[in-house]
Amino acid sequence: MVCPRDLTLSHAPQSYIVYQLCPGKDSCVIMQISISNSIRRVIDFKQLRVFSGNHSGGVKDKYKMTRLKCVLVTILSSTNLLLLLVISLMATQYPRTHHFCPDDWIGFQKKCYYFSKEEGDWNSSRHDCITRGADLTIIDTTKEMDFLKRYKCTADHWIGLEITENQTLQWVNGTMSKKWFPVRGNEKCAYLDNDGAATARCYTDRKWICRMQMH
Questions:
Q1: Is 8 inside any structural domain?
Q2: Is residue 75 included in any domain, yes or no?
């Protein structure tokens, strides 16, 4: 319920807009909020007697404040209200999407990475990734390569790259490698070490890296 515009306190700035709300039965609070000068004062409902006593026919007599359980909230200028409205509309039109990775995974550029603690051959490593809803990692950019080398520490890790029968490099998603980074060796399965990518026999045991899209 909005209070009449002439219902203002003697110490309240004239530019304030006064609202009247009734939240409860037995207690009431007068609240004055000033955003510009960061002043907030809360006055107990009982203190209304001071104002009604200083103003003949004031708040108590004219509006029967002893029977109203209300909160007076004062708000600054329409500029602040307009700013809040614009922010609210932007939040509605552009909702914030929260992405996350599962526990024990690391997020990087909207993807999640799992660095195994155990070791296994290339096929069992890939099987583990698939059971986690992922696959052995593909490396798309130099930044991603640097990220993987930084977080794998000193251990070698299997990655999702194979050498086909015609000696071409193929990722586990079926795409061919663009060969933007060198791959050492002539074996079938690729892994990542401190110097970059290399190949080894697929049955040897190494740690592995899984990758999936961030949810």
A1: no
A2: yes
Cβ atoms 172, 136 nearer than 8 A: yes
**Averaged pLDDT for residues 58-81:** 51
CB 115, CB 107: distance < 8 Å = no
Q: Do 88 and 30 fall into the same domain?
A: yes
d(CA 180, CA 48): 77
Q: Give the residue numbers spanning the domain of 57.
A: 17-93
29 and 121: one domain?
Answer: no
- pLDDT given at position 116: 97
Tell which phi-psi region holds residue 153, choosing left (phi > 0), alpha (psi between -120 and 50) or beta: left
Residue 6 lies in a domain: no
Who has greater pLDDT, 80 or 117? 117
pLDDT number for residue 215 = 78
Both 120 and 171 in one domain: the answer is yes
CATH number at residue 113: 3.10.100.10
Please list the residues that pair with 33 across neighbouring strands: 40
**198 has pLDDT over 90:** yes
Residue 194 pLDDT exceeds 70? yes
